[in-house]
Queue: 2 jobs
Job 1
Amino acid sequence: MDFYNTHTFAMSTLFIFFFSVLNQWTGVEGWSYHYSDTTMAWVEAREWCKENYTDMVAIQNRDEIEYLNTVIPKATTGYYWIGIRKINGIWTWVGTNKHLTAEAENWAKGEPNNGGNNEDCVEMYIKRGTDDGKWNDEHCQKKKSALCYTASCKKDSCSPNGECVETINSHQCECFEGFYGKKCEHVVICEEKYISAPENGSVQCSHAFGNFSYKSECKYSCNEGYQLVGAKVTECGATKAWSNTPPTCELVQCPGIETPQDGSVSCTDQTLSLGSVCSFSCIEGFILEGASSTECTKTGDWSANVPKCTAVQCPAVKTPQDGSVSCTDQTLSLGSVCSFSCSEGFILEGASSTECTKTGEWSADVPKCTAVRCPTLEEPLEGKMKCTGDSYGNQCTFSCNNGYQLLGVSELTCTKTAQWSQVTPSCTAVQCPAVKTPQDGSVSCTDQTLSLGSVCSFNCIEGFILEGASSTECTKTGDWSTDVPKCTVVQCPAVKTPQDGSVSCTDQTLSLGSVCSFSCSEGFILEGASSTGCTKTGEWGADVPKCTAVRCPTLEEPLGGKMKCTGDSYGNQCTFSCNNGYQLLGVSELTCTKTAQWSQVTPSCTAVQCPAVKTPQDGSVSCTDQTLSLGSVCSFNCIEGFILEGASSTECTKTGDWSADVPRCTAVQCPAVKTPQDGSVSCTDQTLSLGSVCSFSCSEGFILEGASSTECTKTGEWSADVPKCTAVRCPYLQDLINGLRNCSSEENLFSTACSFSCLNGYELQGHQIVMCSLSGNWTGEVPECKEVQSEHSLSLVSGVTIGVGSAAALSSLGFAFWIMKRLRKLKAKKFDLSNSDIDVPPQQYKSFDSLI
């Protein structure tokens, strides 16, 4: 055979080979398009597509538009209905029920016009001449041809361990993790030799897809008294490796035990092994809060946590009604003593004090304050008694019948000692003593018996004037109403100058008609008439007044406080202060004024008490003392999902104010989650608040390394770090001995395809083409080049025999690969949907190159 014929035969054989390869690519079953010969409304057109094929065409990109515009004939009337319709005012893909995005729109120029004519359905221009493949909105009742498609995937195409992926004119299986094969019929197997029971332990395995295959799980356990060191469970993974190495079983031993502060611990076994018991106790003045003992369990943990020793503190002491209580220590700790007293008019019944004991209880109950009651009084003979009551402060007044006089006081008061202030009086018959006659004068009485009501009158001889009362009467007390007067020569006596004062008279002879006026120095007050005149009786019309130093009323020291005074005279001052735990109500300094009154009301001391504390929204408040007195501490907390912003506690200060403001509870919020390179992230809640979950996924050809999801925790942090997406990479392929290898990429990444051919004199045995799959494995094994047992034949691609001439063979081989690349480009141009800007229907569409 000459070179020309040999070359011609080789080229013919190559074309036959490539056509057979193309036949493998298109397949018997494949994605196909169909159209109706008749026109119908949009709803009727879709039902026709679903009844006879799969559904109405619902995918659009430039390559497919070019393909449809080439293979679909121009409709006899109008154009073709496609699977887009306006639903609730939004353009929607009916196959996926997804909204049409702005990036996926393919409207003809000026469309959609939606002129208010219910143009809610979409037609596609085929062979229009202008705007080929573009869309136009139309009224759904108009008649147009239906454009449909048929899917190639069947229910059992890749089940149950893979997913059938549609491609134009074909389909392929994408196996789930852990499965491989043309129909995903094989499962990954892990080596059984790595599974063994640990010493002093056992292992139990369960198998989901066969013995020691993908998802097989082995659980380890230890005998009584031993604990597991290492992973408890191991699982067969998709890479044929177990997730964890076998653990070991070591003797159970609990960790060291802490000694509680202000307490002690005692253990039965210092090795702290299984069964060891440790007991706790507290020093004097502290009580145990928690378990009194703990035991080392078979899990290597203590059965109970270490307790706390808290200082003994007695509950708040109630104040007796109508009484008061005063404590030596406001913390009410061990040894604190509280004393009780009653308000004036009440008597203490019970212990006058109580002490906080080491049990946290008071040594005595709170006493009672009962009202004072005085003995019942009897009414005097020949007299009367009138009482307001027999309690503290009540009074009884006494009087005698006419002709009788009272022996004793006329009024008794019930004192705080439950006794009357005086002895009960009695009534005796009234009789006055004999009346004396004034010198230089005379006396005359109406009744010589001098009994009650008798009147005696006085007179002076000529030249004398009566100095005293002109008459007197026998009163019911048995006394004369006035003293016996004197008869003196008519002349008014000299007027005395009041001490700390002055006098000024109109006539120094002090005769009848003379008038003397009185005044006092600053700081003194006039007590009596400010002037007096000399009368015809030789007496001044008024007594000389007194100038008394201004004296302000005596002040009492406030209960729970102190008072310091410079005196009670005019200009003197008194300053007031309160003991610790009390605050002053009123001014702290009073001044005695010239009116004998203090400048302000006397202040008082009241126990320091802070106002009620507000509860923060979405939070709570807890106080150590409900009376909110000095030293009370209130702590704040927030409910789940909120964190405290501000002070966590506040204390009542001696000024009656809280040491810190009420904080706020703000909702927990985590930071934005980063999107992994070559991947995507989807979150359940765009606020990224507590409980929000974000899931991660990788682009095709990449594997997730790390957690597949993360959750926003109550601390405002994500539960897991953002994972990485690493490229799927297949193992390195060795070159053929006596053959050639040609790969689309030397990096052996996902979808890399490699074809094999043999040198002259050898033929290919095995797979001609292998491809790097998503599992990181090649779809087939590397073939071999076997020597051809013939004298005059040469082996070419796939064992096709051609004539002699290695140079021609290599040239043909290069030409063959050039043809393959051109075919790829041609197929990709017509069928590649990977650059589609629109949502795809439930089946996926991939590039034609992914099949090579």
Note: The first strand starts at residue 32 and ends at 35.
Job 2
Amino acid sequence: MTEGSDTTPAQRYNAALAGQIERRWQDYWSDHGTYHAPNPAGPLADKSAPLPSDKLFVQDMFPYPSGSGLHVGHPLGFIGTDVFARFNRMIGRNVLHTMGFDAFGLPAEQYAVQTGTHPRTTTEANIERYLDQIRRLGFGHDERRRVATTDIEFYRWTQWIFLQIFNSYYDETQDKARPIAELEKQYVAGERTTPDGRAWSDLSAAEQRTVIDEHRLVYISEAPVNWAPGLGTVVANEEVTADGLTERGNYPVFRKPLRQWMMRITAYADRLVDDLELLDWPEKVKSMQRNWIGRSRGANVRFAAGDEAIEVFTTRPDTLFGATYMVLAPEHPLVETLTGEAWPEGVDEQWTGGAATPAEAVAAYRDRTARKSDLDRQETKEKTGVFLGSHATNPATGEPIPVFIADYVLMGYGTGAVMAVPAHDERDFEFATKFGLPIVQTIQAPDNAPADQAYVGDGPAINSTNEDVSLNGLGVDDAKKTIIGWLEDNGHGEGTVQYKLRDWLFARQRYWGEPFPIVYDENGTPIPLPEDQLPVVLPDVDEYSPKTFDPDDADSEPEPPLAKATDWVEVTLDLGDGPKTYRRDTNVMPQWAGSCWYQLRYIDPTNDEKFVDPDNEKYWMGPRAAEHGVNDPGGLDLYVGGVEHAVLHLLYSRFWHKVLYDLGFVTSAEPYRKLFNQGYIQAYAYTDSRGVYVPAEEVTEADGKYFYNGEEVTQEYGKMGKSLKNSVAPDEMADTFGADTFRFYEMSMGPLADSKPWATKDVVGAHRFLQRLWRLVVDEETGELRVADVELSESDLKLLHKTIASVRDDYAELRFNTAGAKLIELNNHVTKTYGSAEATPRALAEAMVLMLAPLCPHIAEELWNRLGHPDTLVHGPFPVPDEKYLVDDTVEYPIQVNGKVRSRITVAADANAGDVEAAALAEEKIAAALDGGTPKKVIVVPGKLVNVVL
């Protein structure tokens, strides 16, 4: 019969029937609150039943509600977490799984600029579109817990957390954050010394405030930022391309200093590194975090330069004798001081950049550098720089060495200055080679080391001696200790630890973001608002874009959109000393803010009194030493998302969470106990002769070539996306096959962690599997049940219980593709054995339906119901294997003769090695090979093989 024709059986499982089933069960789950996870306390507590102690908190990374909708690659991780959550509900755990939206950000704001539509209108419409798509896929989300960062009641608590961080400092004696009020008490009591040594009472109120502000975890600082005049806003490093342009719009970006909010994440650098050992995360992600923080042990070394001292940090102080020149970042504060008035006589013209004076050379070079991103400056390319016209003194050799500026040195790492040791650093070697600078070996390289490049390996020190100290012959570690001791004894430096990690720039000159809960007094002092004045609601404005400038106007200054809302900016408040006029902050928080803590609001989304109730947080995220060991930091049980968030989002979230932990607001020391990175769905894309992408679904193949509208096109392979015209919508798959088929196909494509190619033509295989299973339970013609209570054979029982045991393990370990494969294998066996029989044994049918439920919940619910069970299977039972059927009675042994398999024997599973050997030698083919002789050796590998050596 042809599916879709008039002769199609009325009860055949096809897209139409699947759609009816799926809508019906989605409505049922929604009406009955099937996925509601009870809390210990508050309005989401269930007083009618005891709270299960066995819980699971599983979470997807916060999606942004894009207006373009989903393609089939987006739900991959979402389906994975849903399968995992469903399995754990079925084995009796209380599962919290929901989804919210990271809904602030630049795309909605830019759309508002183009169309005049308020970003909230666009964002809410996008969220509804997104929800319509994911609801079709049958996710088991507790929708009562859904939040969006743009909800006023959500960002009220984002502002509240900001205030907790603002009103805290890092107490190095306790190694944790403490309230700023404790610091003030220490100064008042004389337990801390003021910077200039005066008594606290001798300082004016403004001076006291300045001292306190120097310690805050949130502070205002003049910091170099990425300024994009064409956008009228500052952009984050990750929003700048390698060409020094904005990701959105391709506008030039300039580095310039601006007064900005900063978060002192550097105070937590050691804990952020060390506590990675407590987390069940992919090692790749841990390594990326360690590298981003960049903890390095070495020395600060001071090089005298006239009346100044240039301080550098180096991890290899043992190579100090080989420092033959110095390089400063173009932004280094000493550049102007050290720039000479005229070029020294005989200076190499290449060092001058062709300028008449050092000042002209420096100004021109700084201007060029300001147009480059940090990433562009660090990429391997021909080194550039200019000489400052002055020298510093190498403290180890006493020799004068020239001082340059070069863009490959950044102010963001170390001190913004390097001692250049070209013999042992590749970048320094390239620079020295180009500019004709001396190269002095201070580490003995092997005889076979190339002479035309830097030697970066280890070896004994050479050429490293003066009248006070000698490193010659010492290994690296001993040489480091010796030179650091000499530096400290002679006032030239000291051993120290440095980090690549910089404090977090926490402000954007945009409209669509969280307002700061801060006002400024007449002196420009930032005043935190009292908690009872939260939330500070984002006002409506007539224009959503900041003032933009000529894209090349590097001297322009930001004018954020909120600055135009004058009635909101100027406000009269009574903050305890009578009504006064204050000015609100016209910047907004970066998009990272809401995603730093959203897991905590999922726990308690309707709490008006606290951002999360302590009992609820402890239940869902608190440490569980009995399950995870004595060093368990707590956190949610499984966090799934793309590896592209491996550094910044996770680092920022961990920082916020640790501050809240230090202040006693949460019991978990880390937000995410276990992390899993899903792969990507990839797809073929096609370009025509102009290099323009054509719709992939309209491309045909013939004789190994590809054609679009009769023209041959070129095939390429990569990430699925709208721009490549190769995306497939999940709605299309649900319309064509049903959501359960789509879910099963995505999970069966390969391991969840791997990227894999999409092939629409292969989806039909998953659909046919579900049709075969349906036919085992339901008569396609009548819709009647075709199961019977009959005894299972021994072979049926063995295969069934081995499948149950294996599928349980696969679900628990996120091996959904192999779980699906084993269900197909079992289904094929049952179809072969009972497909033509009058009925399928109920024991097989029910077990298969229950095992299928996490992957394909709608069809499983429908079949379970038709099998006579009025209650949903969402909360189980999940089949449990009978151990007696997991043990094999017999074992098959392949028999090798001199390493080549010649035959096989089947023996009792408990046969000893002697019995196995005797059976192998008696086997007809092996006996013939022996021809009455005795083998040289017989090796029996228990349960595996027999090797006969002639």
Note: The CA atoms of residues 905 and 920 lie 7 Å apart.
